[in-house]
């Protein structure tokens, strides 16, 4: 596992698997996560974007479908409604 300790990262991209951030700060970064192992201790994420792929994306979708995570609202959608694809 690659370890980053006591560092600040700005405007970078990371694959979140097999990486440890210990006492780090990430600003305006993109993190791509597919469901593998990671370790984030004492780390702050400021204005970062998380992108879920593969099994991680499927897990998020399942949690949204069963109500564990709220679905994102689209413009013009009434709160509490779900739009289904035909």
Summarize the topology:
Blueprint: E1 2-5, E2 8-10, E3 13-15, E4 19-22, E5 25-27, E6 30-33, E7 39-41, E8 44-46, E9 49-52, H1 54-65
Parallel strand pairs: 1-4, 2-5, 3-6, 4-7, 5-8, 6-9
Could you explain the architecture of this structure?
It is a single chain. With 86 residues, the protein is mainly beta. Helices cover 14% and strands 36% of the residues. It has one helix spanning 54-65; strands spanning 2-5, 8-10, 13-15, 19-22, 25-27, 30-33, 39-41, 44-46, 49-52. The longest helix has 12 residues, at 54-65. It is globular. Mean pLDDT is 87; it is low at 77-86.
Task: Please tell me what the overall shape is.
Answer: globular
Helical residues, percent: 10-25%
List unreliable stretches of 5+ residues: 77-86
Radius of gyration: 16 Å
Multimeric organization = single chain
Major sheet: arrangement of strands: 1-4-7
Strand content: 35-45%
Q: Which structural category do the helix and sheet elements fall into?
A: mainly beta
- Major sheet: size, sense and barrel closure? 3 strands, parallel
What is the distance, rounded to the nearest whole angstrom, between the alpha carbons of the first and last residues?
43 Å
Discrete helix count: 1
Helices and strands, in order, run as EEEEEEEEEH
**How many E-type strands?**
9
Overall mean pLDDT stands at 87
Q: Give the number of domains.
A: 1
């Amino acid at each position: 596992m690659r370890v980053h300790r006591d560092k600040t990262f700005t405007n970078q991209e990371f694959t979140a698997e097999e990486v440890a951030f210990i006492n780090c700060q990430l600003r305006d970064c993109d993190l791509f996560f597919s469901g593998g192992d990671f370790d984030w201790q004492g780390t702050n994420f400021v204005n970062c974007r998380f992108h879920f792929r593969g099994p991680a994306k499927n897990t998020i979708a399942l949690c949204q479908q069963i109500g564990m995570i709220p679905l994102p609202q689209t413009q013009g959608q009434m709160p509490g409604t779900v739009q289904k694809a035909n």
